[in-house]
Design brief:
The chain is of the alpha/beta class. β3, α6 and β4 form a beta-alpha-beta unit.
């Protein structure tokens, strides 16, 4: 008997719920702060009057979120663009799986770039661990997010995973929405960008017993997201030392908020999104006769290769590698002035870290690893794809 799920706890808002949610959000101090940050000349009362009349998620996204994000991009990036999307059929829906750099902006930037290309935005998978205040839950559901439950008791994990998978298949195939989900739970702190095999197992659950065909049916389009500079790099480095010094260390809700805020308003340099084709078009390298464990592993590795080979390299990546490994292997990709700029940047970011027993050498190493690992993966993937 086919199992049916109630999606009430995890779904985005219905349009009929939008006016009430917007009315409540407009009283939140954080919303007022962000509006003032982006447009100090705008009267908040005028903003409230305009937004308070909106009745659909689409209206809220196109009239509030999209202009807000482009203003944010103008302030915090040198460029924001996407390639490869032109190779995908505009009339089809996709499951976009990407590497994960920023808590909020990976999916948000993808959506505005999709709008720019004449497509609709994505529904976004977001972990409930980030919904630290009720207003954040309301805002993300208003912005077409569905909720991924974290820290689930083992006895409930299978049911929760099946419901999430069923919702993704439902949204893609019945609602006609494209989906964004990160390749792993949480951001890759050292930028190694590996797809969790558990994600593949979860995605396949809602599409029938044949794992291979279920994954194919999701129309997965891997996306490589390349930030020239990660505003949260020093926060990630700090977390590495805290975990090294205290194995029981866990981030607080306040830490998550600091990471979200830093990622939003921090400088990112150039930002590029590269759609790396369709997974289904490359799955012929995987035998359908494999046992499920091996098949899942090979699918995850294929997604990794597709993402890694499509990363965009910047001078900071080449300099960081040469500094980390004390070599001049990539010296032809940067000037001496650019090398000095990167060195100053790393030093400045490390100086922002306030820790008892601060280990500057360790922190600098972790920062360099963050910018070197995408290059290492890029070179390996391009070699394997020949």
């Amino acid at each position: 008997m086919k199992q049916r799920f109630d999606f009430e706890e995890i779904r985005p808002l219905y349009d009929e719920e939008v006016p009430e949610v917007i009315a409540n959000l407009l009283d939140e101090p954080f919303i007022k702060m962000i509006v003032h940050y982006l447009d100090p000349a705008l009267s908040y009362e005028e903003f409230k009057e305009k937004v308070g009349q909106m009745k659909t998620k689409y209206e809220f996204q196109t009239k509030v979120i999209v202009p807000f994000l482009w203003k944010l991009a103008e302030r915090t990036t040198d460029s924001l663009d996407m390639s490869g999307i032109e190779d995908l059929d505009k009339d089809d829906n996709y499951t976009f799986i990407s590497n994960h750099r920023d808590i909020v902006l990976d999916a948000a930037f993808l959506s505005i770039l999709l709008f720019k290309s004449g497509r609709n935005s994505v529904e976004v998978a977001i972990g409930d661990n980030l919904l630290v205040y009720p207003w954040i839950r309301s805002l993300v559901r208003l912005n077409k997010s569905f909720i991924v439950k974290r820290d689930v008791p083992v006895r409930q994990l299978l049911e929760v995973s099946r419901r999430l998978s069923s919702y993704i298949h439902f949204a893609l195939k019945i609602k006609g929405e494209s989906i964004w989900i990160a390749q792993r739970e949480g951001r890759s702190k050292d930028s190694t960008d590996r797809t969790q095999e558990g994600l593949i197992k979860m995605l396949a659950m809602g599409g029938g017993k044949n794992l291979f065909k279920s994954v194919q049916s999701l129309n997965i389009a891997p996306v490589a997201i390349s930030y020239e500079y990660d505003p949260c790099d020093y926060l990630k480095a700090r977390e590495f030392q805290e975990k090294r010094d205290n194995p029981d260390y866990k981030k607080s809700k306040k830490d998550d908020l600091i990471n979200m805020q830093t990622g939003l308003i921090g400088y990112k340099g150039r930002v590029h999104f590269q759609v790396s084709g369709l997974l289904a078009d490359e799955m012929d390298v995987i035998s359908q006769d494999l046992d499920k464990t091996t098949m899942v592993s090979q699918i995850a590795q294929l997604i990794d290769r597709m993402i890694h080979r499509s990363m965009r390299m910047y001078e900071v990546n080449y300099v960081a590698y040469d500094l980390l490994y004390d070599t001049n292997q990539y010296a032809k990709f940067y000037t001496e002035e650019q090398k000095e700029t990167v060195e100053r940047y790393i030093t400045n970011q490390v100086s922002k870290i306030d820790l008892p027993g601060k280990d500057e050498s360790f922190l600098r190493q972790k920062m360099l690893e963050m910018y070197s690992n995408p290059l290492i993966n890029y070179e390996k993937a391009r070699l394997e794809s020949r």
